[in-house]
Amino acid sequence: MIIRKMKCLVLVQLIACILFTGSTADDEWHYPSPDPTGVINEPEAWGGQCDSGRRQSPIALSRAAAVRGEFGPLIFNNYKLPIRQALLTNTGHSVQVNNNDTSVTIQGGGLPGRYVLDQLHFHWGSEHTIDGVRYALELHLVHHSTLYPTLNDAVAVKNGVAVIGVLFHVAAQPNMHIGTILETAIDIRSVPGQVAPLKAKLAPNSLLPVNRTAYFRYEGSLTTPACAESVIWTVFPESVALSLDQVDQFKVIHDQSGHELVNNYRSVQPLNARSLVYAREWERASDSASGSASTAFPVMGLLLVLLVISKV
Ligand SMILES: [Zn+2]
């Protein structure tokens, strides 16, 4: 009798397991867990465009694999203002701060128009790698084109979304702005869907690296389901510092299954038939050449005058 009941229970669990793993609803996706040694062996297998797309993100960044780019300066409008009524949300996949002020925008830097900041969120470790190195944390500042009313509308259009990626490296000193996020995250870390007001003012500008004139640029996708291929990416090679203790505080945030979200980065995707651009303010060899020509001109003029005088 007990054996029959146990067999029945196993069958019910098996059916439940098949039903659960067969589901592809967006809110049921998860990041694969690392094995006991910390290595992630399981592919994401999120389905749809995440698996079939040819212009997916993140990618492995490297100057050696990039082509030279030269755009105008990247302009951050009202990035120095603290985010108004800033709320931190545990999304079950990350922690996210939403922005409702449509005057916080980016433009220039080769972007095809102006883009409004919708939200910022974090991935621990980084999604993009540089020269094969993964960073401790990656901040995504997600913007939508002003040509479309909302982020949801813009996600359906190529270049409708612009994401700025900021990488963080481990250093001795904590980052006080990341500290503001983490102090608030303590109150919401155990319950996905929970929201709390930020415990201190936070301006998006305070999370950016000092040097914003050099960056990687490519066309890709959102890094979470449904992985829409509508994103124009800008990732700075200059990283920002935070402490190891701060990195560990992200890892105890709970996911939608009630487990600690030890990591929430997607594996790097193939570049396929895309160009990776490395843009910076290049020193022009032609400038220095024309400079020497202009200084040489009076000397040549003087020689000509002397030649004429000597013939007179
Ligand atoms: Zn992201």
TrEMBL record:
* Species of origin: Anopheles darlingi (Mosquito)
Name of the featured protein: Carbonic anhydrase
Q: Per the similarity annotation, which family is this?
A: Belongs to the alpha-carbonic anhydrase family.
Q: Where is the signal peptide?
A: 1-25
Task: Give the molecular function GO annotations.
Answer: carbonate dehydratase activity; zinc ion binding
Q: Which domain of life is it from?
A: Eukaryota
Q: Which cofactor names does the annotation list?
A: Zn(2+)
Reactions accelerated catalytically: hydrogencarbonate + H(+) = CO2 + H2O
Known role: Reversible hydration of carbon dioxide.
Matching entries from InterPro entries are given as: CA_dom, CA_dom_sf, Carbonic_anhydrase_a-class, Carbonic_anhydrase_a-class_CS
Gene3D superfamilies, alphabetized: Alpha carbonic anhydrase (3.10.200.10)
